[in-house]
Amino acid sequence: MVKSTGSWYTVNMGDEMMSCRIIGKFRLGKHKLTNPVAVGDKVMVEEEGNEDHTGIIRKILNRENYVLRQSPRRKHYMHLMASNIDQALLIITLREPDVKPGFVDRYLLMTEPHDIPVIIAFNKIDIYTSEDDRRTKGYEEIYRTIGYETIKISARTDENLDQLKSLLTGKRTLVSGQSGVGKSSVLNALDPELNIPEGILSDYSGKGQHTTTFAEMYSLPDHTEIIDTPGIKTLSFNNLEVQDVAHNFREFFEYSSACRFNNCTHRNEPGCAVKEAVSENAISVVRYENYLAILTEIENQNYWERHTDF
């Protein structure tokens, strides 16, 4: 499936594209979904036999992986961003607009459960100040240390875009970012034939405007596929418990085997190897503070908001 537009889905049938709809309800385990079929899904389709040549999606084949987030509009539901991907590209910027505190770590909570590699791209470096450069260096050190790829780019000047293209070539990549980070500009710079609409920053709020409304997969040369998604404003987690978060901060999980308690949440427990690693600067204080903020948010949610099937 290559495009989702709400009630209709565009399916690549090999020699043609077919507009399809679904009949019945699809779920993902216990989760209720706002969009039962995700871009990247392999599906079985039945032709309706009408003059419009539309079809019905009868079955979704097993997914190798998927990226799931809480629906920004229906808090009891989940939203599938994409499935069957090789990697994710998260585009951020430290200027126009500045990346939200904790946004990167929240995004990684969506990809880490399926061990999906993530490339963190710092866009708009052509307008960075010396302070922005210093902060970028600090971010890169944090995320490279724990195994994530980082790259500094400029869609305006094409700086390092060849290097980015080589990281994407031959793979299916989910591309995400906050509104206004220049995601569409980066994709168009990588391949001008995409011609994806590009937005501008609001003079009033300094925030980006949505230019991508629905997720869509584009095919590029050299067996390269890009899944473009709408800009992300917020990321919440009604689907996670405290231990889910602890297990998916990858460096915390490595140190946790040395914690005194198996169910250590790495906050107030004695003998916590994670807290000790933070105090010794072996774990980023920034990551740890973001972790604590996410735990607080999850615990402050009403229990029934996170367990609506009970």
CATH topology of the largest domain: Rossmann fold
The fourth-level CATH homologous superfamily of the largest domain is P-loop containing nucleotide triphosphate hydrolases
CATH class group of the largest domain:
Alpha Beta
Q: Provide the number of structural domains.
A: 3
Beta content comes to: 15-25%
SSE map:
Blueprint: E1 3-4, E2 9-12, E3 17-22, E4 43-47, E5 55-60, E6 66-70, E7 78-83, E8 87-92, H1 103-111, E9 118-122, H2 130-145, E10 149-152, H3 161-168, E11 172-177, H4 183-190, E12 216-220, E13 224-228, H5 242-248, H6 250-256, H7 273-279, H8 285-300, H9 303-306
Parallel strand pairs: 3-5, 8-9, 8-11, 9-10, 11-13
Antiparallel strand pairs: 1-2, 2-3, 4-5, 6-7, 12-13
State the gist of this model.
This protein has 310 residues and is an alpha/beta fold. Helices cover 26% and strands 21% of the residues. Strands 10-9-8-11-13-12 form a 6-stranded mixed sheet, sandwiched between helices. A 5-stranded mixed sheet has the order 1-2-3-5-4, with no helix packed on it.
Write structural notes for this entry:
The chain has 310 residues and is α/β, with parallel strands linked by helices. The chain has three domains: 3-60, no CATH class; 80-228, Rossmann fold (3-Layer(aba) Sandwich); 242-306, Probable gtpase engc, domain 3 (Ribonucleotide Reductase Protein R1, domain 1, Orthogonal Bundle). The chain has nine helices and 13 strands. Strand 9 (118-122), helix 2 (130-145) and strand 10 form a beta-alpha-beta unit. The radius of gyration is 20 Å and the shape is globular.
